[in-house]
Amino acid sequence: xxxxxxxxxxxxxxxxxxxxxxxxxxxxxxxxxxxxxxxxxxxxxxxxxxxxxxxxxxxxxxxxxxxxxxxxxxxxxxxxxxxxxxxxxxxxxxxxxxxxxxxxxxxxxxxxxxxxxxxxxxxxxxxxxxxxxxxxxxxxxxxxxxxxxxxxxxxxxxxxxxxxxxxxxxxxxxxxxxxxxxxxxxxxxxxxxxxxx
Length: 197
Hints:
mainly alpha
């Protein structure tokens, strides 16, 4: 934390090299976070840019507290910036519908792999791609609950929806993820069978 504190002090003094070092140190992880919410690189980069402007403007507001971290503080700013981006898109009638979405697919449980199944042949990049392909409402709640550890009550407050809507969106996201992972696993098995023959 001492190195981080020194960097923060330099950023507070508007040291351009320190600002660049801060960006270089945290941008990759924060871009990944933004990508999970936005679903595409272009929007994720816009959110990252806007989020870093907020971080630089508000770095003086960061207070070192027991159990808190500068990175955690920055992540919260990025999550809020991503949510604002999604809300703006919703206002444009282009993107987010957080109210309950009609089931996109009828899911048949026959042969369905359970929720605790492990998919060892699926890369982390592929799983991220599948998450980013989720409908925006599902993806937003999934990210907040799974990656940011928000409670449904907190998600409901953030997204101006009911707790039941949050729970429903998460459940549907998990079902859809499981279905896509099952399809992927099935395709890989088929490819392996053809390779053996």
